From TrEMBL:
<dbReference type="Pfam" id="PF01284">
    <property type="entry name" value="MARVEL"/>
</dbReference>
<keyword id="KW-0812">Transmembrane</keyword>
<keyword id="KW-1133">Transmembrane helix</keyword>
<feature type="transmembrane region" description="Helical">
    <location>
        <begin position="65"/>
        <end position="91"/>
    </location>
</feature>
<feature type="transmembrane region" description="Helical">
    <location>
        <begin position="111"/>
        <end position="134"/>
    </location>
</feature>
<dbReference type="InterPro" id="IPR008253">
    <property type="entry name" value="Marvel"/>
</dbReference>
<dbReference type="GO" id="GO:0042552">
    <property type="term" value="P:myelination"/>
</dbReference>
<dbReference type="GO" id="GO:0019911">
    <property type="term" value="F:structural constituent of myelin sheath"/>
</dbReference>
<dbReference type="InterPro" id="IPR013295">
    <property type="entry name" value="MAL"/>
</dbReference>
<keyword id="KW-0472">Membrane</keyword>
<dbReference type="GO" id="GO:0016020">
    <property type="term" value="C:membrane"/>
</dbReference>
<dbReference type="InterPro" id="IPR050578">
    <property type="entry name" value="MARVEL-CKLF_proteins"/>
</dbReference>
<protein>
    <submittedName>
        <fullName>MAL2 protein</fullName>
    </submittedName>
</protein>
<feature type="domain" description="MARVEL">
    <location>
        <begin position="1"/>
        <end position="138"/>
    </location>
</feature>
<feature type="transmembrane region" description="Helical">
    <location>
        <begin position="29"/>
        <end position="53"/>
    </location>
</feature>
Length: 139
């Protein structure tokens, strides 16, 4: 599941960064969640790979559940914001302007759709990882 989380999260990060970011408040949060989740997942994996988990007295199953559960909530929210940005495709960029420039061009609209799909896939992976962590924690 970890490889899917990293791969899909990286794709979301790249897709959102490749647009003009017409709505910085919405897509800025999506970028923040994608980058932070990607980085913290790498740190979390490194703790286990390099054996620091044995040196730190912590209930790692509970920490795993809390981390993935919180990340699932944030990523699902990021997916909703990215989908909301995509849905505003037909609105004009400036409401008082006579130019008919839209918020997203056709190419950016397609990129935004892909970013929404991959953000949803990443949220599903984090949800699945949360369920597995809960199962490990309860056992």
């Amino acid at each position: 599941v970890f490889l899917h989380l990293q791969l899909f999260g990286t794709i979301v990060w790249i897709l959102v960064a490749s647009t003009r970011v017409p709505l910085p408040l919405l897509q800025g949060w999506v970028m923040f969640v994608a980058v932070t989740a990607w980085f913290l997942s790498i740190v979390f994996l490194s703790v286990f790979l390099f054996g620091y988990a044995n040196r730190i007295a912590l209930n790692w199953n509970q920490a795993d559940f809390i981390f993935h559960g919180a990340t699932f909530v944030f990523y699902f929210g990021a997916f909703l914001l990215q989908a909301a940005t995509t849905s505003l495709h037909h609105f004009p960029r400036k409401f008082n302007s006579t130019a008919q420039e839209r918020i997203l061009t056709g190419h950016e609209y397609n990129i935004s759709i892909a970013a929404s799909i991959f953000a949803f896939a990443t949220a599903v992976c984090y949800g699945f990882s949360t369920a597995l962590a809960l199962r490990r924690w309860r056992l």
